[in-house]
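Can you give me the bound-state structure? Components:
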Amino acid sequence: MPSSFSYLISHGYTLSKIAVRKAKLLSPWDLRSLAEMRSLGELVSFLDITPYREELLKIEADKLSANSIESALSQHFFSSVLQIMKVSTGIVRDFLDQFLTKFEAETLKAVIRGFLSKIDPEEVLSSVIPVGIFTQEVLSRITSATSFEEFLEVIKINARKYYPSLREVYKKGLLEASEIVEWETAIDYFVFPILWEYVQKLGKSERERVSILVGSEIDAQNIVTIFRCKSLGIDLKDIKRYLIPIYYNVSESLLEEVILSESLDDAFQFLLKIRDYVPYIEAFRGGYAESGSFFALEHNLKRMVLEKSIEQFKLSPLHLGMIAGYYNLVYFEIRNLRAIALGIEAGLPSDRIRELLILPPSLSP
Amino acid sequence: MSSEVIEGVQATRMELLALKIRRNLAQKGHDLLREKMDALIMHFFEILEDFDKVRKSVQEGLQEAFLALTEAKMVLGPMKIREIALSAPHIAEVSVQTKSIMGVRVPLLRFLSGEKEEEKLFYSFVDTSVKLDEAIERFRKAMDQIVKLAEVQGALIRLAREISETRRRVNALNYIMIPRLVTTINYIQLQLSEQERQSFTRLKKIKAKLEKKGKKLGEEEIELTPEISMVTELVPKKEKE
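Here's the bound-state model for the whole set.
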């Protein structure tokens, strides 16, 4: 790791901007009380004094809905990343570039999904938000492709890094809408290893702290995927191909043991070997008998990533982990606000809305 | 109640016999149809009970499914859900067979979707949520119940139609056909007895005339023509009767 002084010289401006923005994030108490609001108008009035104001003001009064709020919040998220990228240099800029890849992948998946399902390009464009290399112009070019060859050609020219993975799926002739999962899995197989590889190339200290965030997120994803596959009745031998081939705290062999475990209890026993994740697995185990749903597991593991992101701010502030942590916090905040907006729109009781919010443990319902 | 005599009927013994056979047949048909109608009504009410249960479970199922969908939207965002929904495979595949209830063909429907593995998964696990799996599962179950409701409703409609048709036939037999046959039979019987009475009186008169004529001729022997012999044979017999 470079010395703190040189780090401060190189990234001081960016890090102080991040620190200021972190202070502007809504507190968990704010989010809890927002869930009590009974109309979207009230919610937007409250958000008027937050950084989301600018994007929310663009929504016309008669078009105020959970959808328009989600769109505004997402646009805020991406423009916030781009703003920081503009003022940052070197490692921070590179990291943010890599960080955006995850969201680029989501956009690419949406476009491919639309293409395979032969959905009207206008419709596809209205449901994706331009991010990273997928600018509005590139998205228009991709969606207006009339054949797979043309589609891949546009990807080759405008989003070259995704081309080899997509070409492989294309070669297999998986061109039906029902085969979208193969395309999406191929993109995930490409994106996460690239991000992980980047993190592993960082200096020791940076690597350790960013790995905690990226690694635990991937572990959480893999654990939940196994249980989802099992509950959907997917063949045990097929489950592994849906996992991200990155193993942080959960080794490949442990994942295999979880896959092959015959009962839920056995699976838990294997997972309880990972000391870091024990509280989250235990918390889920207690509630599973009552709910019969794996959502609590997914929710708890997401909460774990949130907590690890918060922890980044308790350590040295001159660190890439802080930036990664900050963007995770923004992501969760937007996710929570979206849940609140939809809950209010659907007229759900506040308790039910709060159950779906990802909050630190002390504030979780 | 219509009890007119059947038009154009001949008041003969042959006709009477045929009508009596028809009346018995109509009575049997009426009894059978009545039994059929009772059985159909019994089945109808059994299915009606099912219909109420299924309708209730469809309502509950759809409520749960829409709540799960709202929760999935809350977790993943409406844009993502819309995007996945637009590309969801066409899942409404239903097999249609029929079964017979008292001779009425009623539909037997089965929702086939969700049985093939490739239909189960049309999104990857990254960027999606357990809530989405649950919402889809609930909608599949609700669809299953909707198909069941369609089956029960179809059976009810067909049974109701058949009951109404059978009731019409029973009523036609009970209030039109059988009374008409009975009236016609009575009419023919009346006509026949009237004819018999007329011929008996006529024969009696002939006999009386013949006897009178015989007295006038004294001891003269009357030549017995075949008609006279028949009258003399018939009259004493009728008198006895």
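A couple of observations. DSSP finds 19 helices and no strands in chain A. The domain at 203-315 of chain A is CATH 1.20.1690 (V-type ATP synthase subunit C fold).
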